[in-house]
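Re: the request from the purification team.
They wanted to know what the chain is likely to look like in 3D before they choose a buffer screen. I agreed to run a prediction and write the result into the notebook, where they can find it.
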Amino acid sequence: MSARILVVEDEPGIALALEDDLTMEGYRVSVAGDGVTASRMAREGEFDLIVLDVMLPGKDGFEVCREVRRAGVKTPILMLTARAQEAEKVMALELGADDYVTKPFGVRELRARVMALLRRGAGAAPSKTLLIGEAEVNFERAEVRRGGVTMPLTPLEFKLLELFARNRGRILTRDQLVEGGWGVNAFVSERVVDNHIGNLRKKIEPDAEAPRYLLNIRGLGYRFDE
């Protein structure tokens, strides 16, 4: 069964172009033209991906994203924005968006991001073992070995590592790391998060001072690249 995509766009020309292109790619596409309708459809429907414009009548895309996440909907969200300010991008990610594309965007770029999010879904479970350079992670044994030597990870470090493995290639904000590592209601400063990432790097990176896998994406968060 092909993936179901909800396209939320108030400009008829753009909405039709997105619907036509995604349909030609084999997806089943539904369209909403305002924020109120989009929020209802996202919460009531069973979609595999939501392509969500920021500028919408009724409710903007940020408010829709907030409502959908508060309702417990885990569907990946790809934000479409004409705003180039870094703060807007950070806000989208902090509200629960999984990725964003800045208008004007190319069709090939959009297709690639749609495919990537559909592959990841709500976060594909990591395989039993994962190679990170010379480090081998065994998720069943909660163990990391590098060069034949077991690296002692704290339970929190291992939770963070598993969170990165489930979201490889995706930027995780510090708030998302806190929620996944410490818990939803935990109050943890950015410095504490950075310190734990630094400790984790020392155990899995060939050179913690020049990391190759746990990358700091300035102003946004961290991304795990294999």
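For the purification team: Residues 190-204 form the longest helix (15 residues).
Please add any questions underneath this entry.
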